[in-house]
Input
Amino acid sequence: MKDSQMRGADIVVRSLIEENAELIFGYPGGAIMPVYDALYDYHEQIKHVLTRHEQGAIHAAQGYARVSGKVGVCLATSGPGATNLITGLADAQIDSTPLVCITGQVASHLLGTDAFQETDVVGISMPGTKWNIQVRRAEDIAPAISRAFYIAKSGRPGPVLVDITKDAQVSLGEWNYEKCTGFRSYKPQTPVSPSAIKEAAFLINTAERPYLLFGQGVVLGQAENELKAFLDKTGIPAASTLLGSGALSEDHPNYVGKLGMHGNYAPNMLTNQCDVLIAVGMRFDDRVTGDLSRYAKQAKIIHLELDPAEINKVVKCEVPVIGNAKISLDLLKEACSEQSHEDWIGRFRELESQEKEQVIQNDLLPSKAGLTMGEVIHNINDYKADDAILVTDVGQHQMIAWRYFNYKKTRTQVTSGGLGTMGFALPAALGAQLHDYSRQVICVVGDGGIQMTIQELGTIMQTKAPVKIVLLNNNFLGMVRQWQQMFFDKRYSFTELDNPDFIKIADAYGIKAKQVSERSQLKEGIEDMLIHDGPYFLEVVVEKEDNVFPMIATGSSVEEVRLS
Amino acid sequence: MKRYTIFVITENFIGILNRITIIFTRRGINIDALTASESSVNGVHRITIEVTTTEDMVIHLTKQIEKIVDVINAFYHEDESVVYQEIALYKIPVAKLDSELEQIIRQHHAKIIAAQPEFVVLELSGHKEQTQELLEILQGYGLLEFARSGRVAVARRMLTLENILT
Output
C-alpha cells in the first residue's frame, strides 16, 4: 500500500498493525513518547497493555507468544526502559520465543554523548537477540520492522530488537509497507535431505530398542500431528523435555514421561539402554543429559533439528536430519515400517511403577500432615479444563508442577526453561491470558519468584485478566534450600524468607484471594478458584522442607537418577 | 590445537563485527588476528579470522557465525588449504642504515617505502614466521616502531565470491 508522508511514530504503529500485532505490552518514557502519542490514535486497531515494569512487559509478550504462536511485541523507552528488557530477551533467546521489542532512543545528534537516558541498547542486547538494529531515519522504520517480524518468527524463532531514535519518530518519512519475505544472507529453513531420511529410517527399522525424545521444536514447527502419527506407526516410546511438554498428549500409549534432572525415573534410566535414540527438536541441554561422557554412549543417535548449529553441538549424532520437524517427521514416518515395541515400552512401565511407589505416591497422596506441592497440582488436574494453560516460575514448584500437571494439548506449557528466570510466571501468565480471556490460565508460582515481579498484580487488576494464581508458599527459596540440604551440609545460607501477608497484597489489588493451609480445604479452594469469574489468588501453605525427586545431581549420569 | 582461518562473507551491516567477536569472547577464545574489508562485490564485506583451537571448536564457531542473520556465508580452512599473506611495517632510525642492514633488507626482500630525515619505513609481506624473523633481527638495529596486519587469505579450492552469493 502507498500513502503520503507520515511521522515516524505513526509509521511504527502502522507497521505493527500491518504485522497483525493486535496486542502489545509496554511502558512509556521520554524517548518513546512520540510512539505512545501515535498509539492514542490507533487504539481501536491495536491494544496496548501498560505493565508495571518493562520486565513485566517482555515476559507478558513471551507468554502471549508462547500460547498464541504469534510474535510477542513490547515497547520501552531508552536507557533503563531498554535495559529492563534484557532478562526477557535472554530468556526468549534461549527458549526460541519470537518477540519484536521496540525501544526509543535519544535523538541521533545526542548518540554517544551520554545524554539523559542514553544507553547503547543495540550493544547491550546483541548477545540476547537473534537480530537487532538501530534506526535513525523515519523512512527506515517500516523496512526495519518488517524485517524484524520476519526474522523473529521464521526459522528458529527468537527475539529481535528495533531501537528508534526520537528524531526518527518525530520526522516525516514515506509510508510504504512491504512485508519482508526473505533476504540474501538469511536461510531460515533447509530442505530435508532424502538420504538422511533413508539412513535414519534404516536405523529405526532395524532397531530393537528405539527411543524418541521430543522438545519444543515440535511445537514451534507445528509438528504435533506428525509426531503422533510417527509414534502411532512405529510404536516407539517417547519422552518429553521441559518445553516439549504438551506437544504429545500424556494419554498417548507411547508416552513414557519426562526427561532431565527432575524428570521421570524410566525416561532417564533407559536413555542408557536404547539402541537408537531419535531426538526431535531438542538441543541436549545439560539439565537433560547429565554427565555427557556417560550419556547414551551405546546408542546410535538421529537428530531431527531445524538449526544446523545445534547438530553435534553437545552430543555427536550418527544421522543429522536438518529441517523442520513437521516435514522430516512426516518423511520419516513414510520411510519407517510399522512396528510395535511393547516389551521395550514395558520396561519403561516397570520403572514407572517403581517411581510411583517410591516418589509419586508420597507426593500426591501424602500421609504426613503438611501439604505437598504435588497434591496441589494433583487436585488442579481434577478440576482443570483439558486445554488449561499452566504457567510456572522457576524452582521446586516449577519442577513439581511440570511433573504432575496432566498435559493434553499443545501450547499449554509456559515456563522459563533455558534461562531459569525467577519472576517470569506472573507477567507471562498475564500475557497468556490476554491472548484469550476465555482460556483457563493457571499460574503456579513460588514465594520467592512472585516477589520478583509482584507489581504485575497491578496490571492484572487493571486488565481484569482472569488469571488463576496459585502461590505455593514454603517460606523458602526451595530449590536452593534443597541443594543446600543435599550438597552443602544443610547450611541454609540466605534461603529462608520472612514473607508479607500475600492475601492482604492481593486484596489491596482488588484480586479475590484465599489462603489454604489444611488438606481438608484444598479441593474446595481449587474448585472455588477455577470457577471464579475473574482473577484469583490462592495461597497454599506447603511443607517447608520438601524435596523434589527423582533427581540427577550435577555431574551424575542419567542412570544415576536418585529416587530419594 | 591447530591454526585455522575462518572466512566470513557478510552484508555490510553495522555491528556485524561485534556479533561475530562475541561468539569468541563468550567461549573465552582468543582471536589471533582479524581483518575486515570490503570485498570485490559492492555491499559485501569479507572478514578473515585467525584462531588457534581444536577442530570441534572451529566447526562450532563457524556454525555459530553462519547462524548470524546478516552473515552470508562462513567456512574455515587449515593453514595448508589457504593462501595467505600478512604485511609488516618496521620503522628504523636512519643512523642505523649501513651496508650490513642493506644486506638484511635485500635478503628478506623487504622494501623501503618511506624515508624521513630521522627514519625509514620498511615493508615486508609474507607469513608471520617471515615477518617475525625480520622483526627479531631489526630489534638489534634500534627498531622504533613495528606494526603487523592480520592475514588476508583466499581458499586454495576453486571458489569464487559469486558462487557464494548465489
Q: What stands out?
A: The mean pLDDT of chain A is 97.
